[in-house]
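Lab notebook, bench 4. We co-purified these components, and the gel suggests they stay together. Before we commit to crystallization screens, I want a quick structural picture of the whole thing.
Request: model the full complex, all chains together.
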Amino acid sequence: MGKALVIGVDLGGTKVATAAADLDGLLLAKVIEPTRPERGIGAVIETIVDTIKEAATSAGASKSDIRSVGIGSPGPIDPKAGVVVFAPNLMWHNVPIVELLESELDLPVCLENDANVAALGEYRFGAGRKSSNMVYITVSTGVGGGLILDGEIYAGSFGMAGEVGHMTIADDGPLCGCGNQGCLEALAAGPAIARKAQACILHGQETIMTDMVSGRLEEITSKTVGEAAAAGDILAKEIVDKAAEYLGIGIANLINVINPDTIVIGGGVSNMGELLLQPLRRATQRRAMKAAFEKVEIVKAELGSDAGVVGAVCLALGRL
Amino acid sequence: MGKALVIGVDLGGTKVATAAADLDGLLLAKVIEPTRPERGIGAVIETIVDTIKEAATSAGASKSDIRSVGIGSPGPIDPKAGVVVFAPNLMWHNVPIVELLESELDLPVCLENDANVAALGEYRFGAGRKSSNMVYITVSTGVGGGLILDGEIYAGSFGMAGEVGHMTIADDGPLCGCGNQGCLEALAAGPAIARKAQACILHGQETIMTDMVSGRLEEITSKTVGEAAAAGDILAKEIVDKAAEYLGIGIANLINVINPDTIVIGGGVSNMGELLLQPLRRATQRRAMKAAFEKVEIVKAELGSDAGVVGAVCLALGRL
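Here is the predicted assembly.
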C-alpha cells in the first residue's frame, strides 16, 4: 500500500487533466487525456475514472490510497447537488457527475465550477497566497472569474457567482455571445482583440501583423497582437491598450463592489504580461474608488494551465 | 432597574437617529436630533451620547440596562479599528468614534458603514428576511449599497465593499462626483434624474412638470419626475424608464458577479415603486445571465428611513 493521496480533475471540453497529490497538496503525477464528449456521458465518466487510476499508479500508489476527489467542470453547476447544469462544450445538461463518479469510485467527490476551482488553486498555491479576499479573472476565449471571500470559494446562492465577463461596461457596446451587449467579454477577450486587429487591417492600417500571418488575416489571434505590440507595432499596441482599458473598467467595478486585497489575472491573454498589465492598472486607477485601489494588488496568475488541477486538488483536500 | 436593552445609532450628516430595542430587536423608543457637525467632533459625540441616554429613558430603562451599541456611519470606515476614515458630510477624517464612545459609555460599541448597516436591517427585519445572499441598493442623492453574504455583512478587505454606485456601466458616460465617468450614480441617482428633466424642458419638450414647479425648473427633483410619470406624463415616464434601465444594468452586473437570491432597492428614488421597478426588472432580465436572473427576487425595501437604526440595532445584537 502506497501513501494517502487526493485527486484533482480539471474537466474541459477538449481535455481531462487529472493530478494525484499528497495530503499537503504537492502534485505527484499528472495525466492528460482527450475528453471527446461526442462519445457520450458514460464514455467521458469512464475516461475520468481511468485518468484517476492512472494518476494514482504514476504517483506510486493505487486506487485504494485515494482519500477524496475534487473536480472542476465548465458551468453553471450546482455544487450542492453535484450536478453539471449546463456545459455547451461537453454537450451536457443536468448531468449528476458527483453521483456517477461516487458510484464508480466509492470515494467522496466534490464538484465546483472550473473558474472557481482555478481561483482556489491560485489562492492556495499561486499568486493569491497572501490574500484573504481575492478576485480571479481569466481572459482567453472568454472572460471568466472566481471569487475567494474570507478564504473560501464564494459561489453565490445558486453556484453561479463570478461571471465577471458578463458585466456590462459599455451600455450600447457590441453584442456578446450571451445575448447582452457591451459585456466585458465582448470587448476584451481574445477573439475581440483579434477581430479588432483584422478590422483595422481591412480598413487599410499598416502593421507588422499582416506579415506575421503571411497575409492570412483569419490566422491573427490575440497572441499575434501581443507579439506585434511587444515588437513595437503601433496599431497592435493601441489594440492591447484598449483591451486593457476595458479590463481595467471591469476590474475597477469589482474593486468598488468587492474591495478585495488581490486581483489575479490568468488565461492566455494575460501571457502578454506587463504589456497588458501596465495600461490595465492605469485604467483601473482612473475608474476605481481611490482608497480601495490603493490597497489592492493586481497581479498575473502564477499557475498557468495548472490552476485547474491544482485547484481541484485543493477542493479534494477540503473534503478530508 | 429596567430590562436589558441594545442601542442602534444611525449617524448622518444632518441628523442622528438613535433607537433602543429589546434583545429580540424590537424597537422600544427612537430619538432624533440634528447632527450639526460644524460644532466639532466632541459636540457630535456628546449629542450621540445624549440620544442614547434619552432613548434608554424613553424605553423605560436607564443607561445601566444597555448591553451594547451599534453605529452606522457614512464611510469609508475601518470596522476593525472602529474609525471613520472619511465622511465629507460630517467633515470627519480618521475619527476613532468607537474609542471615543466606549470611553464615554463604558459599553461595547460596534461600527459599520451606513449602507452596510441599512442592508443588515433589511436582511434581518425587512425585505431580505428570507435571503441568505442579498444585495441592498439605495438610490437617493447618490447610489450606495451593502452586501449580505452567507447571512453576514460582507465589508471587503478594508471595509469598503458595496460601492455599487461607482460601477462604470457606460464607458464614456457623464462625469461623476467621484472623478470617474459613466458611474451608475452619475446616470441614475436622484440628481441625474432631475437634471435630465430640467435639460429636456430647456430644450423645449412639453411636460406637466413645468407647471408642477410653477416654472421654477431648479425646484424639479426626482420626486417631481416620479409624480409626473405616475400622472401619465410622457417625458417623465421616459426619464424614469431610462434611469430604470441604467439601474437594471448595474443590478444585472451584481447578479452576474454575486449571484444573490435577493436584491433589495431602497432610498428616496425607490419610492416610485413599480413605476420604477417594472422597467428596471425588464432591463435586468435583458442584461443578466438567464439562469441567475430567474432565481433572484428584485424587491423594494420595507423599512424606509428606519433601515439605518434597525440595522444598527442588529449590529449591537451581534456584539452580545
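The mean pLDDT of chain A is 96. Worth comparing against the SEC data before the next meeting. The longest strand of chain A covers residues 27-34.
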